[in-house]
Structures are given as C-alpha cells and as structure tokens.
Write a structure and sequence with these properties.
Spore Coat Polysaccharide Biosynthesis Protein SpsA, Chain A; seven-stranded mixed β-sheet; 12 helices
C-alpha cells in the first residue's frame, strides 16, 4: 500500500507565473506533507515552467514529480498523471488555482465519513483578486447565473458533476473506467458523467475550496464561455444525457431577445413584449449588482458583475448555437470554437 493518500495532478501549459502560487499553496496545507504527492504534467509549455519547477522541487516539504510532454491538451495530460500516480485518491486542480490551506484536510474528513468513489468541491476568489476576477467568479458560481451547477449551492436546477478545477477520484475509478477523453473543452464533464453513470458514489464537498484566478479580460472570458457552449453540443453527441433543459436558456434568451428587439418597431405587441423582457432583465441585473456587492464588499466588482453575467449568457448562447449549427445541421465532424490554446 502506498504511503500517499492523495496524488495531486496538475496539467500546466505556459503558466509559470501561476504555478508558483499553486505550489506554495500546497506548502501551506494543514494536512500531513508526507501523505500527498504533486504531479506536474507540463503539456508542451514554451515558457520557463521547467526552470521554475526545478527551483522549487527541493525546497518543498512534500514530493513533487515533474513530467514534460508534447502538447495534447489537459485531458491526455491528466491521464498521464493518473498513470504515474501512487496515491489512493487522485486529485485534480487547475494550474491557475490556489488551494485553501484546509483543502486536503476537508477532503480527507469527507472521505473518512462518506467513503465516496469520486467527489468535487467549489471554487472561489481571494480578497486580493481583481474586481474583474471577482465579477467573473460571481457570474460563474452564483445560483442566479448558473442554477447551482458548480457545487456552490444546495439548490440546483441541473445535476452536479465534479469539474477538474477541484475534483477527486479513487484510483480504482481510473482502473475500471479509464481516463478523460481527448475533447479540447469539457473532457472533465464527460469523465464525471461516465463516473456517475457507472453507479459510483459521487458527492459534493462544499467546504473543500480552491481559489480560481479567472480570465483577465472580458474578451478572453467571452471566448472561453463561447467554447463551453460549443463543448456542450460536442459532449451531447457523445452522451445525450449531458444535455439538460437549463442549457437551452442562454441560447433561447440571447437570440429571442435580439429577434424581438429587431421586430419590435414593426409590431405593437412585440414592442410590449420587448419592453417587458427588458424590464425583467434590468431587474435581474440590479439584483445581481446588489448580490455581488453583498458577497465581495467591492463596488467595482459589483458594477462589473451585471456586465460579466450578460457576457456569459450571450457567449454561451452563441457558442451553443454555433456548435449546434456546425455539428448537428452541417454534420461537421469537428468544431471547437475559438482555437487559441488555453487551460481552463
């Protein structure tokens, strides 16, 4: 039996500046340092990731293993990490995250109590994150904007599936089900879906938190969410159980509003419908502003939250529709949206 309870697997691609913060967050863990190992899988980085890691390895009180591979994407990188891991549980965290000091302790406590086969936790922000990062955090985690899908709320409008920014599995899951697929976006969701479908016990651990450094511009955020909309269609063609009614709302809302706005000047009833829709939207955006202000106590983040939330709705809706058009209507074999490489 291995001495390691946890093997923390981190795929990284040109994130040398952020990997430093992540590694130091492992150093601050309240969990026993000799009970976990960290596997950094460099996915073809062209920056100084290797140099940074080599400087840190010997100074850390826990085991770090560093692997360099050709660029294939986060799914294959995580699979390679799992093939090399020695721990009883495999943990996934993104390279742009920071683990809370009690992250491993909270996971260990939940595992001892619940005996899960797989699990996931939420992501959040730190006080020193930028107002935009806080606004993006709100848009991606609030029940108002996501329906509780990402594990932050006990109330959920869609099923919870662990995501690779904060996820863990027992090593036997990898042995029996294999690893993640090769999709550029959404491979972790498809993996979680397979785990749930296998009958494995999957739980949410809401107090096992990681802090996620999200996109640094609205443009990058739009492209990311657009690709997620495309990914939902790609995933549905693999497993139609992944598609739920909630996933249609951004597309229907975005295109429905635009269509009604175009036709409103030509028909009185459509104008009234547009007026009602606009009033409801403004009311919801106002609620989002005050909810964000209450959560972060940051006026700039609160002012950005409605803008970011609208960006998220339209980006996902456009991506979802583009994916449907390319893959379902035109029968294209592949479509991934924006092709710029990034790790989510």
């Amino acid at each position: 039996m291995s001495q390691y309870i946890f093997s923390i697997i981190v795929p990284c691609y040109n994130r040398s500046d952020e990997i430093i913060d992540l590694i130091h967050s492992f150093k601050k863990q309240t969990f026993q340092k000799d009970k976990f190992e960290v596997l950094l899988v460099d996915d073809g980085s062209t920056d100084n990731t290797a140099e940074i890691v080599s400087q840190l390895i010997d100074s850390m009180p826990f085991r770090i293993r560093f692997f360099q591979r050709n660029h294939e994407g986060p799914g294959p990188a995580r699979n390679y990490g799992m093939s090399q891991a020695e721990g009883e549980y495999f943990l996934f965290i993104d390279s742009d995250c920071i683990a809370d000091p009690d992250w491993l302790t909270r996971l260990a406590e939940a595992i001892e109590k619940e005996k899960p086969d797989a699990f996931g936790g939420p992501d959040s922000v730190l006080d020193n994150f930028t107002p935009l990062q806080k606004a993006i955090d709100f848009a991606m985690t609030s029940f108002l904007t996501t329906g509780g899908m990402r594990g932050h709320s006990k109330k959920k409008l869609a099923k919870f599936y662990p995501r690779s920014f904060n996820m863990g599995i027992h090593r036997n899951i990898f042995k029996t089900l294999g690893g993640m697929g090769t999709l550029r976006h959404g491979q972790d969701l498809e993996f979680s879906r397979r785990i749930v479908a296998s009958g494995a016990r999957v739980i949410s651990i809401p107090d096992a938190v990681v802090y996620h450094k999200r996109r640094t511009s609205l443009r990058k955020f739009f492209r990311q969410i657009f690709n997620w909309g495309v990914a939902r269609i790609n995933l549905t063609l693999i497993d139609n159980g992944i598609l739920e009614p909630l996933h249609f709302i951004p597309s229907l809302g975005a295109f429905g509003y635009i269509l009604i706005a175009i036709l409103a000047p030509f028909h009185r009833y459509l104008f009234y419908l547009w007026l009602i829709g606009t009033s409801v939207a403004l009311g919801l955006l106002t609620v989002i502003f005050f909810a964000a202000l209450k959560r972060y106590r940051d006026l700039r983040a609160a002012l950005l939250a409605p803008i970011v939330s609208l960006t998220q709705v339209f980006a996902y809706g456009f991506g979802f529709t583009a994916g449907f058009w390319k893959r379902v209507v035109l029968k294209n074999k592949e479509y991934t949206g924006f092709v710029k490489k990034y790790y989510k």
